[in-house]
From TrEMBL, chain B:
UniProt entry tagged with the keyword Cell membrane: yes
Leader sequence segment: none
Alphabetical keyword list: Cell membrane, Membrane, Transmembrane, Transmembrane helix, Transport
Main location: membrane
TM stretches of this protein: 12-30, 95-120, 132-162, 182-200, 240-264, 284-308
Protein family (similarity comment): Belongs to the binding-protein-dependent transport system permease family.
Its membrane topology: Multi-pass membrane protein
Domain ABC transmembrane type-1 stretches: 96-301
Superkingdom as given in the UniProt entry: Bacteria
Native organism taxonomy: Bacteria, Pseudomonadati, Pseudomonadota, Alphaproteobacteria, Acetobacterales
Pfam families: BPD_transp_1, BPD_transp_1_N
Protein name stated in the entry: ABC transporter permease
InterPro entries: BPD_transp_1_N, MetI-like, MetI-like_sf
Amino acid sequence: MRRGRIEWLLGGGLVVLFLAISIAPGLFAGSPDAVAVTRRLEAPSAEFWFGTDETGRDVYARVVHGAGSTLGVVATAIALAGVLGGSLGALAGFAGRLPDLALSRSADALLAFPPIILGVVLASTLGTGAGNLILALAIIYAPVFFRVARAAALMETGRAYVEAARTLGHGEWAVLTRHVARNVAPSVVLQCVILFPLALQIQAALGFLGLGVPPPSPDWGASLQESRNYLTVAPWLAIFPGLALLLAAMATSLLGRALQTAGR
Amino acid sequence: MVEALLRRIGATLATAVLATGVVFLLIRAVPGDAIGEMLGQSAGDPAAEAALRAFFGLDRPVWSQYLSWAGDVLQGDLGTSMRQGLPVWGIVTDAFLVTLQIGLVTLLVAILVGVPLGLAAGSRPGGAMDMLVEGFTLVSLSAPVFWTGMVLLILADAWLGWAPPLVYTSPEISLSDNLESILLPVLALGLLQAGAYAQFTRQQTAALLRQDFVRAATARGLPARVIFGRHVLRNIAIPLVTYAGLILVQILGGVVVVETLFAIPGLGRTLLAAIQGRDYPVLQGALLLTVGVALMVNLLVDLAYALIDPRVRGA
């Protein structure tokens, strides 16, 4: 089988699966908060596929119910970063000169930080909770979108159709929104898919550091933090949320690679 | 060439100034500060609070605090920790050396594992080895690095019955204890970056093999071994070396979570502790060092390209 087809099938299949789990977790598992006190820290079995945690909750149910919040936070953050960085980037590339210089320098300043470190600072500044986590991740990745959109807009602005639109008497705003922005959009969308696995890792790391969505939410990163004290006693607590993260990141990077090859 | 170089250095400096300014503003926006906690039982006493604030200069406007901090930094003074009362420079550089050692050993692992894998995969695109390496890079780049660390801890316990000492030993005290304490963190980070290195090497090799001069060499009847050694390796050596700089920056950033997991007193943990304790001078110093190293390495990588490859110079 051709390599591209494997990427599409595996990546696409996994993405659909994760989407289904995120949207309707109830179809796949019972309650993530149901407690069976007498059955604490049980190893995986036919009844509890992924075992139980320190309060007797079903790890499988928690991993399934954690998908929506974990992946939802990342998807929202990426979308927000894409809109924010994308529009500012298109504007900077199109307007040129002073606005470009100011925006580009600001983007560079944010890009100078390793993403996780910027994430730690931002998450501590904003405080815990899903909304703040989304905002922090969006600020980290907006500069990346800015650069991509700016480069694309610079290229488009030099094209003949932009000159033609101007000659026809269209206003600058119309040329930007109706022509340039539409041609910049595909690179921004592709960037969303490429950045998703990276943002997911940062989301998980912040959760692990206790700076993400706080417990008792079944967020995967937060679950990994809770599992730390039981690593050798109950390794399944750490294995399964991590595997979920691994598979979700893999699915989106496969899809990203397939899209990149298709675009060439 | 000189003009482009100066412009590049100027842009880097401007970025550094802007980045430290952003940091300065951001961390002062963090809710709560060190003063309340320092006062302990006498918290709520406005006179004591005002006195402490004035002592640390926190009563002045932010821009004035920034200017005096920046002035001190230019004279090589990063200030004094509000919590430990020690010079920030010492705290931050001690921590950085710990992180740097892990970073350099990790880089070595990544190169030793990643480059051969990438060469093997790239020399026959689409072959069985290529597929295997592709799978390896996919998994290693998708796994959260702290989770890889946790899995290593679990495996070490299950297979070897070995639990690593979660206490860091400096190499000056005992090299063997030091290596034992950084073994798993280096492996976790190394697996990730070996994937990155393998992917990069594969791309470079495969792209090079498609070049006309390689085809010409094949047409002249040169054996594959000679083509590989004389033409391919020489050409990808430069990008591979410069890539090391970028990977090192990535490792120094990604090490934060791993240091927390393995209780290593590196720059990442110092930074986290400074944020939690609202120790502004230490936090500023640690961030300045992180950003400074990242900007410097990026600049050096660009310079290296320009020095080695004349085609880049005009750009």
